[in-house]
Records
---
Amino acid sequence: MFLLTLVSLLLLSASGTVHARPCVAFDVNWNLLAFGLDNKDWNAGQQPTWTGSGSASDITTSGRPPFDGNSTTCYLSQYTNAIYVLNGDSKNPSSVYIYDATALSWSTQAVDAGTFDISSFDAILDHDTNVFYALSQGTLFHLDMGLLKAANSTPLSWVNTEAAPYPSNYVPVMALAQNHIHFLDVPGVPAGSADIFVIHYSYFQPEAQAYPLPNGSAFPATFGQTASFFQQDNTARALVQQEFAFIPQDSSAVYVINVETNTTQALAGPSVKDPEATYFAGVTSLVQLTSNGVVNFLPYLEGSGNASTNAAATWSPVSILTSVAPPSTATGSSAAPSGTHGSSPSGSSSGSSGALAMSNVHLGLVLSAVLGAVACLL
Ligand SMILES: *[C@@H]1O[C@H](CO)[C@@H](O)[C@H](O)[C@H]1NC(C)=O
Ligand SMILES: *[C@@H]1O[C@H](CO)[C@@H](O)[C@H](O)[C@H]1NC(C)=O
Ligand SMILES: *[C@@H]1O[C@H](CO)[C@@H](O)[C@H](O)[C@H]1NC(C)=O
Ligand SMILES: *[C@@H]1O[C@H](CO)[C@@H](O)[C@H](O)[C@H]1NC(C)=O
């Protein structure tokens, strides 16, 4: 009885009944927005202010999602200056919450998930078409957001596009660059290479593309997180993703993969090695949101105009967020981050044992398990 109670309560704790998670994103003016941090939303402004003596502004307003979803992820819709939030509301997991970053207001778009498994997927938002592409249970789905910066009364739908040509055990790691979806860590694809889906032709490229480091070595074939950088290309388009960061689960390095030159550059891995952290990239920086609600950044470009990669860049906290939403309160019960990855919930099992992932809620459950077990003995 004692063992059964203890084991079942520990299992309850390990599976994590609360999967809430804040998220970070940029608006089109490259202000850093942090949502659901200490149960509020914040605008930290542009990069030069992040480590200043000021504080981030509280932009919490009505209509926002509760950020109590299973593994919330946020995306910048560049042409509308809106942030789309997936999985931000456990009661309405398929709804897409839209933050209009110009009007500073929220609305909720009803979405019919159909056969799309909202609890297990990775997704990107395409630059030119404003269409989400997601890989879930081996199938590629899409969700056309039109040019919405506020919800439409007509529900949208996740559409089953086609089966992906990848093994069924593939836990997707997806990154967007130049309207190509890069799939990393596909079983059978060598380290340093990615499989590609060409969005405009709806085409899975049969051969993998190699992105070697200058010394000929390769980024590892392993699970991790990605974030795409926005850059000026040779067209008049708005800044477009031409490079993306790949952060392996062990945080050993940040690999910046450039799809124009087909090369990879290795930068410093995050100082906070948190397998549950999520990432968002802007123009000049890569931002990390840890599972206990700390926001750190890597100033990956130096200079302006034709800025060049700052190979010596190091990670620092976005202190103006830490000062208003300290990590101790960011792990409060309703904002408790936990065992699932922001962009790849299905890949969470490998990382959820990490000590950093242990939230207060989990600790509370473990404590109550022990107390319950003791009570059973008496
Ligand atoms: C949350 O995610 C887990 C694991 O992916 C899944 O088993 C569970 O059903 C999800 N819960 C909700 C409310 O979607
Ligand atoms: C990068 O690879 C693609 C696809 O193989 C190729 O079309 C392109 O020319 C390559 N670019 C460079 C600069 O090598
Ligand atoms: C190549 O460069 C990477 C990144 O700097 C480094 O981790 C790796 O050890 C290097 N490999 C060799 C063979 O020098
Ligand atoms: C950046 O480089 C391009 C092409 O080399 C050049 O035309 C442009 O003037 C440069 N811009 C700046 C700000 O230096």
---
Amino acid sequence: MGVKILFMTKTTPKFKLSKRLDLIPPYLFARIDEKKAAAKARGVDVINMGIGDPDQPTLQAVVDEMHKAIDDSSTHDYPPYTGTLDYRKACVEWTAKRFGIKEFDPVTECLATIGSKESIHNSFLAFVDPGDYTLIPDPGYPVYNTATIFAGGIPHKMPLLAENDFLPDFDKIPVDIRNKAKMLWLNYPNNPTSATAPLGFFQEAVDFCTKYGIVLCHDQSYSEIYFDNYTSPSVFNAKGAEDIAIEFHSFSKGFNMTGWRIGWVLGNKEAIQALSQVKTNVDSGAFKAIQRAAIAGLNIPQQEITKKNEEVYAVRRNAIMSGLKELGWNFTAPKATMFVWAPIPTSYTSSAEFCEKLLDECGIVVSPGNAFGNVGEGFFRIAMTSEVSRIEEAFKRMKEKNIRFDS
Ligand SMILES: *Cc1c(COP(=O)(O)O)cnc(C)c1O
């Protein structure tokens, strides 16, 4: 806590900081954590529907394998930079089977990551020179924006609008920016909008990136959290994607492993080599014991994982949707992710004002939409990371305070 307060308060040090730090907006969740902590300190029974961190434990098979792997001293030395061959084999096999795509070469077309965040950031260093553009979604995962700035690039925000089903419209990107762009980022199922993308959209993205020579990066953090009869596709289900795309997979959300820091990225060989060149100079690989435990996760039948996720999240989504409906909201329930993306009532001037009201009057933490980009203004994100009883309690409090959607 002390550390965070230190970060939030502007004091003048006796040494010089890099200018780039001034260009980086404060990390959203540090600010929310601080406000939440202050409410808790006031004795408020806070219902946390803010950050997207699964509340369920990691699967037992993974934990069991970790116990064994950590007792084996051969896991204790430096791991191979790109991941153990066993791990990468398990990753390419799992991905091929899950999405019905080609089996990528585990040696040249797949890398172990220390969670997606690290490799998402590092990939910008592999593709972006000062003055280059990146094409990133707004609203979107904040790292696409900050990593562009760290690399000296210029983010071009592609608005995700409700009227376009929260898919970017490539036709709206100015032609000179298309020619100066080095990376295009997509993330479906999407955080924060919870939108999904049809295969035809991925094909459009592949064709666009092929035409302009832009590496297509797909963030698949939520591929294993989906409901009803929906199943999320891979970018590699689109024709020609192997020539232009890489896809970032993570154990964090789908396997309840946010703290373990493990994932993988696979796809086009030259792009993987470029990312590998950055990573070998930045980190020294993921702990071998964790890679072994993660393999145990991939060995669990995939349907079992998604069924478990559906059991946990679908009932919560339904509770959130019916709570919202009772208070006047009316929109389609998400088919994937652990989020509900909802418009704020028109009587509030900003997402921040509405979210502060929820925290101050009801003790409810949700994320203001503008924290994910300017286009997110006017929305708020509810994470399905609380039990149904807590969700019901949250809506009861909103009802008591007469907080409703008013148009
Ligand atoms: C959570 C999240 C990540 C980061 O996942 P880690 O593997 O834990 O680093 C990346 N992208 C999106 C969209 C996320 O929501």
